UniProtKB/TrEMBL annotation:
It is a multi-pass membrane protein. This is Choline transporter. It comes from Brachybacterium alimentarium. Keywords: Cell membrane, Membrane, Transmembrane, Transmembrane helix, Transport. Belongs to the BCCT transporter (TC 2.A.15) family. Pfam families: BCCT.
Amino acid sequence: MPHPERGNVSASTAQNSPPSAPEGAGSSGGSGGYGLSKPVFFFAGGIILLAVLFALLLPDVFNSLITTLNDTVVASIGWYYVLIVTAFVVFGIVIAMSRMGNIKLGKDDDVPEYSVFSWFAMLFAAGMGIGLVFWGAAEPLTFFADTAGPGVPPNAAALDDPVRAERALGQTFLHWGLHAWGIYVIVGLSVAYAVHRKGRPVSIRWALEPILGKRTDTWIGDVIDIIALVGTLFGIATSLGFGVNQIAAGLDHLGVLPNSTMVQVIIVLVVTALATLSAASGVDKGIKILSNLNMGLAALLLIAVLILGPTLFLLRDVVSNIGFYLQNFLQLSFQTLPFRGDDGASWLGSWTTFYWGWWISWSPFVGVFIARISKGRTVREFITGVLLVPTALTFLWFTIMGGTALYEAVFKGIDFTRGTGAIDPNTALFDTFANLPGGALLSGIAVVLVSIFFITSADSGAFVMDMIAHKGDPNPPRITRIFWASASGVIAASLIWVSSLSGDADASGMTALQSLALLSALPFSIVMIGMCISLWRSLSHEVKVIEKLELRLRQREFMERYTEEITDEVTDRVTGDIGDHVESHLEGPYGQQIQDQLNQQVEAQVAEQLSTYTAEHPAISLDGEAPAESTDPGSPEPGRPSGSGRRKSQDR
């Protein structure tokens, strides 16, 4: 059974200023007033403690019970995982292509906190984890040559070597491509929207606020966070436990240390100690330096293998693999192998549906990380960047590492199974490097690379878990971060030690612990469906509000621009039309009749006004003649009319 380890979700951005907490979200204690969520912390801790004690005290029973339960679930609902994960990819693409993609993850005037290059680099760091190093050569080789177990897909076993090799890389692309990142898009976008757009704490529960409402900050929200926290811790612990096998195998391959249980336990404890120190010293001092170093080593290893390997073949293979993936995307996305019977169900449960459950169980971890670094991006930028950039770099990694291994198998006839029919994923990468110039140096770089990935995974995982446990506090207390980092390493080391006592690595409880992490994917897939519904409601509501505001704005601009112009035009048109209408009616006999009537009315009104005035002033005659001479001393000179009479005469 494969055991992918997705890691290196760096928490180097956690120093950002925390978002404002909603009312009632914080409590006493903790930074920023968030405080420890006791139900989440203690219930999650209790579940983890009981599971680990069960695995330590009764490893055989625990392994049998949990593994059987997980296999039953995967076998029964494998079709559900295939359908729902493909739906997540489609959902993200639809959101990005719609008007919802224009919405900003933050305030409308917020700008991205990181440059495009830095953002892409951190997205690559989130995807370029332990799993890619571990499975870079092993998974394509397994799908090509592993006939001892559920390795070669049942529908590819009868194909010729070149065709089977091409299909092996295409199948690998399916497991590590758009579908994996489509899962992370749903969780990351939901959390980013709640945190940056709505100002909620960095916690899974707040992504469901549109459908939970006031119940978000109740026991229902606690259950959601507990599921996310338990799945994350079990995932990190199993990654540390299984991934250490590759470091031990690499050291053995280089002749540094023999591969033994004691060496594996020491490696886990050393990695845990370094991760704990990094968590205690702060993300800027520890993880940031290690992440930058890791990126440089990964780029160096990739370029070195490209140059030292079959360069021209690999460049052609990159183009061909992308074409194969795009051409067969729909068929691969809905592949359930119903006509392959038990072989098809067994292979699907061991690989594709296993991966989908694994990515879902890890999605709280990775989703919270990519949400934290995406403030100021639009929804479309977020989806496009998260889907395409890590996917493209992942394809490049698998083509160079896996393509080199397949080239050696097909064209050089190298048998990586060593006659057993089984591919050992712990040594496949080192066996591939052994056939290249400078293979020992490449193997040494790979060992260092995996080790740093372990440290960054444990540290950033502890940071994310502590944020969840502290009600979404973006800067949780140091002491609890140390607790989570230590817990994951101690659990892994304990289970590895128990495996040595039982003499059976698969009976140690480590595989069962991984199965337990996968079981958390089932309830969390329901949470993710709720996230899709919540996200659609919130984004569509914002689009409607934006459309209404845009309509009002257009109406206002229209009124401001055209009101005066339209008023002048209407006034001129109406005035002109009335004038023309009156003028047309005044022409002809009818117009002359109206004119005569108007003249008569005017003359009558004038005569009436004159009669009234002369009655009030009898000194003025209607014919305008001057009055008789007066002997009054105050009268005017003889023969001259008085002033008022003159004015009235003039008025007349």
